[in-house]
Specification:
By secondary structure, the chain is an alpha/beta fold. The protein has helices spanning 73-80, 94-97, 112-117, 123-126, 215-226, 248-260, and strands at residues 20-21, 30-35, 38-42, 51-56, 61-64, 85-88, 106-109, 157-159, 164-166, 171-176, 185-189, 194-198, 205-207, 234-237, 244-245, 266-268, 274-278, 281-285. Helix 5 runs antiparallel to helix 6. The protein is globular. The structure holds zinc ion.
Amino acid sequence: MRPSPPWWSALPRPQWSKLEPVPQNQAWFEVYRVTEGVFAIYEPRHFEEVISYLILGDRQAVLLDTGMGIGDMKRLAGELTPMDIIVLNSHTHFDHVGGNYQFDTIYAMDTPFSRDRSKGTPPDEARAYVGEGQFWKAPPEDFSPEAYQIRPFTITHVICDGDTMDLGGRTLEILHTPGHAPDEISVMDRTNRLLFTADTFYPAHMYTHFPESDFDTYVETARRLAGLADKVDWLLPAHNYTPVDAEYLKKMYAAFQTIREGGGEYETLDEGIRKYTFDGFYLIVKGKG
Ligand SMILES: [Zn+2]
């Protein structure tokens, strides 16, 4: 599903220029201060354009996802904060857990999917993620596409819907938001009116068609999140750019309803997969029958 012109023709994305860049010394990453105590860690050189977040309280730091595992995430996080770091996984797709192996404390949901993904992705499988056309700019010099893998990791703390994490002066609430992946969460900072939507909402192609995805479950999640749209100002997604207006929660739910009612503009891709185009995002959906 590689678009033409190439994906990187949209880079650098202008939205990032509105944020304050934070200096650090790995060319692989770009780091921006999104708001007080929230850093976006962006990996623009790879097709996924994944975004991890470092979220600071007064006495505890949470790293929401660890990215591709191509840059040194642990070194970067250590440069950004002297505090202990808890890794919190938004879900266990490869591009969000690549640096997990570097950390001792990992919070994630306990589902058969997450248990399977925690075994890692060996080079013969992971190689496909770093092949031809996947890089905008070169990876680090010591990176070998042939040896690329997602290393196994241990989920040390199981999280559930409704759990809270007190970081000192900042509380994060875990919302189980399955659909894209069964172990997908969103993270709400109610006081600061932020919702980290991970892969449940981002301003690009959202995937509902993977074997582990479930369209109807995703619709239910979209309905739940639309109900929170008035309680947050900004969404902080896990791909492409951040933040985006919380109004998108309502737009996403409306889009799902449109599709469920048989409406919406789509083009058919390989294997009957449909790409629905909406204002500011796309939904990739399994064709019916
Ligand atoms: Zn994902």
